[in-house]
Amino acid sequence: MDAHTAYLKVIEEMSKHIAGKRETLELLFLSIVANGHALLEGVPGVAKTTMTKTLASIIDADFKRIQGTPDLEPKDIIGYTYIDSDNSIKVKKGPIFTNILLIDELNRAPPKTMSAFLEALEERQVSLGGMDIPLPKPFTAFATQNPLRIEGTELLPKVMADRFIMRIEVDYPSMEEEGEMLRIKEREEKIAVNKIITINDILDMQEQAKKVEMPDDVVKYITAIVDATRKDIHVVMGASPRADIAFMACGKAKALVEGRKEVTIDDIKFLAKPVLSHRIAVRATGGIGVNGIIDGILASTKI
Hints:
By secondary structure, this protein is of the alpha/beta class.
């Protein structure tokens, strides 16, 4: 099955279990094909866990979930070593050793735990008992955070959020989507999640995505809009070079699953908010939200 056909079948299957949210579902899948990790932001109860768990089932991947709490320790995520009854050192792997990991309310966890988690994500390995143990392939982590400072939560610092390839906004459903959601819940026990592709298919897509071409005008457009975030008068801190890399990886993934051989400027425009919104610090007195700033940059940047 080619990447485009697989992508359409995956989205079609997810739509049987998730009401609406087509763009959100697309971005979730793109983050996996781009071999990155994504930050899911939305109020509680908008199906963030359901979406990630369903996607894992569709690609026949191992899935684990961690609940962020104020007492969550690094060992609760990465694992630990212990002395067995025969006095030998044993390694107990944590839930991070999976294909798709969801950590709910990461911004509720202590800073030390968040740092250890993000370090493991970037290095894609864990140090336990003096050994560097690689994480499984493929491996994608989805972390959720509440958008409001409620019940002891704080938004992730930009330097930590920057490690995620995309920030995917999960908003309230429309009335039509909410009605569809009720019908799905009504019949959910009668509908099994079909396994469409395998983790080997994902690994193959990740390699294929690397070969997608990126024309010079697209490179110029990416660098122009990233640079513009650093010069906007409403921005305290613009996007880092990680944004350029994220645009490239996600753009190539999008072109691949849509059956194209090269990235287009329209791909970059589509990805602008997911790639940039969590990397920009806006002035409190600016009067413009981060999405408004990105819209302005896209409108004024011509190549």
